[in-house]
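Annex B. Sample input.
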Amino acid sequence: MFDLTQLNEVELISGYHNIGNLLMCNYCQLTMARDQVSEMVTHIMVSHGGPKEALLKVTSKYNSLTATQEQILRAFFDG
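Annex B, continued. Sample output.
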């Protein structure tokens, strides 16, 4: 997985980032041409449950949420 600490807020929210002329998924490093934004968004939704879900499921030293904290964040995400 890409080091999420290197990404800005927009890249974390969208679930992908730009590398040169490519888009790269933050979670599996799938790359697509820069003009395939809708395809990348679809990939993130289908393969990772969306960018918010993917962020909640990241296994990292930066994500040590308890089950209760995760439920609260989900409630915020869902509105």
